[in-house]
Amino acid sequence: MSDAYINWKNSLKTNNGIFLISEDRRFTHDESEYEADMDFSTLTHGYGVIQLMKSLGCDINGPAIEIGAGNGLISVSLAEAHGFSDFMVTDASSVFVEICRNNVEKYAKTKSNVSYGIFNGDDLKDLPDNVYSLVCMANALHHIEYFEEFVTLVSAKLKIGGAFVCQEPISDGFLMLGVLAKAYLVFSKKLSKRLIEKLEELSLTMSNSNRRDMNKSHLEDKHIFNIYELQQLASKTGMRLLVYPNMGLEAFADGLNETKSKQESFSEMSKGYIQHCLNWDQDLKDEVFSKFDELFKFIDIACGGGYYPPVSGSFCMVKER
């Protein structure tokens, strides 16, 4: 570990073994209910991060930090799998940090050099430069309004050969889902008032998330990402982007072999989003699944043997200069 990193960490205050890097920020929802049914004993996302980095020849000798850890989707298995000199698990909410720490203690079979911190990504500038082998996030970057500035700062924090690894929504598939919702509203005649409201909400969410010409400070989910946009951003900040569409980080737990066969279909990804991410009554979700089923099947069949329109995916930006 570099002296800069050691000195920075030693300068931090702690409370109950948790580093206080930023002010504590509670969320509008109950953190304890967030994906409370998740079986952490089966998660392999952290192994996927390590295997992805090794396959790409990344540096794994320096410290690592996870930002926006939530309840520990990556943290539990990365605490078990990592070979970094230090691994700090962070979230802006002290409640999430406690939940995550408890999950790591309970489910990680082995762990070493793991620490925890309250950290808001807005304070990324305060972390030491050129020291990290890994900065990772799962489903957190899209909550950051000025993500271009954030990624630029991430690059400054990485050492050469380090990686920014994340799992985020992609515009191609989500825009298609929004178009399907809008088209159904335009061409269908007998729809319930509830369904009309929800389809309007869905199409508007997809549109707003993709737009770059509006203030998004009031939105919780601010962005879906265009791959070309991220390629340009990575190149501009001295990094090389690799994209794995419709694959979560767990897909790489056994390496990068046959990645195309590991992708989920457009219908699987879209239904998963509707089922798990939309606060709709189940009968409305089932109605949408029924009405959209033929449309989903058409897209899946049309993409047979190739890649489906990406609804989300894993990204790895490797710092080269």
Describe this structure in words.
One of its GO terms (molecular function) is S-adenosylmethionine-dependent methyltransferase activity. The chain has helices at 3-10, 45-55, 75-81, 94-107, 147-157, 171-187, 193-210, 227-236, 259-262, 266-277, 282-302, and strands spanning 13-15, 18-20, 64-66, 87-91, 114-118, 132-138, 158-169, 239-245, 312-319. A hairpin with a 2-residue loop joins strand 1 and strand 2 (18-20). The chain is globular. With 321 residues, the chain is of the alpha/beta class.
Fold topology:
Elements: H1 3-10, E1 13-15, E2 18-20, H2 45-55, E3 64-66, H3 75-81, E4 87-91, H4 94-107, E5 114-118, E6 132-138, H5 147-157, E7 158-169, H6 171-187, H7 193-210, H8 227-236, E8 239-245, H9 259-262, H10 266-277, H11 282-302, E9 312-319
